[in-house]
Amino acid sequence: MMKPMLLRAREQILRSSFAEHHVVLSSCGKSKPCSTLLKDAEPLVENVTCGTAEEVARELPAFSAIREVFKGFYRGAPPMNSSAEERKTLPHPLDVGQQGWCWHSCDAPYLLWYSRIGRTLQHVRFFWFLEWDVVWTGDVTTILSAWSAVHEPFDPHTSKGVDIVNPSRFVSRTNETDVYALDGRRLHSHDLLCPNPSWAPRNWIHRQKRDVSLVLHTHVHRCVTEIYRVTHRLLGAMIRFSQDPKAAMFCEARASSVCALNAWCTMRSLFDRERAHLFFTARRKQQIAPYN
């Protein structure tokens, strides 16, 4: 179903001089096995890989212990289409490879890919992850190039190192290479760009889906995963974090929380006034005037 969009993305990216395109398939839940997914992806064959839930759990142990770490906090998983009697004989929805496990582990495919392949691509400065349900019009490289650098006002004498309420104001004090000058303006190489990263409030249903002794409440952040831009060092920190079986987390909390746990890490939202014209929000159907 996604092949036309993937082919279009690759066509656009191949015309650019600054980006390359990888397709990461995942066999999880009720989806087809990797052999079938790879076959169905043809003629996309170059830089196309596939991983399974079992491979994720084996190579990144945090994903093997989701059921134990969440301790019953797994509401929000898609309902299982079965009766109460049938559920008694079925696997737990958070067991590795089950539907709930796949849903909570939405970032697993790209973390497995980075652990295996992405970390070797040292010529790449930023990794963009666009989930299968991200839709765009025009040329996708417009978005990629718009975020090659971020101009930020910065005063080392007044800026705070940490702003829990607004992560976009995080300023690293431990790595001056985050900030460099160009055209007289200071630029920040943020480790994470995503849609509106923020501190996770108490009423967020997924906030408890973590080991509370490993990730304190002051470091729990959230950001939806549809589109991310991540650096090597944050991805490396996420991989190291995921080597600990106690480090199971809901996927929309992992990147931003790991960033918040590290003093060198900075993050901000993709959405700002300077780039608002790049994003569009569809109107409700009833608000659109009919054609005459």
Written description of the protein model:
This protein has 292 residues and is an alpha+beta fold. It has one domain (3-76, 90-279). It contains 10 helices and 11 strands. Strands 3-10-7-11 form a 4-stranded mixed beta sheet. A 3-stranded antiparallel beta sheet has the order 4-6-5, with no helix packed on it. Strands 1-2 form a two-stranded parallel sheet. β1, α2 (34-41) and β2 (48-52) form a beta-alpha-beta unit. α3 (53-59) packs across α7 (108-116). It is globular and about 55 Å long. It starts with a helix and ends in a 23-residue tail after the last strand.
Task: Give a short summary of the structure.
The protein has one domain. 27% of the residues lie in helices and 14% in strands.
Keywords:
27% helix, disordered C terminus, 292 residues, alpha+beta, 4-stranded mixed beta sheet, 3-stranded antiparallel beta sheet, 11 strands
Name the overall outline: globular
Q: How is the biggest beta sheet arranged?
A: 4 strands, mixed
What's the number of helices?
A: 10
Residues in β-strands, percent: 5-15%
Task: Write the H/E string, N to C.
Answer: HEHEHHHHHEHEEEEEEEHHE
What's the arrangement of secondary structure elements?
Layout: H1 3-14, E1 23-27, H2 34-41, E2 48-52, H3 53-59, H4 66-70, H5 84-87, H6 99-104, H7 108-116, E3 126-130, H8 141-146, E4 150-151, E5 179-182, E6 185-188, E7 192-194, E8 198-199, E9 221-222, E10 227-231, H9 232-241, H10 251-261, E11 267-269
Parallel strand pairs: 1-2, 7-11
Antiparallel strand pairs: 3-10, 4-6, 5-6, 7-10, 8-9
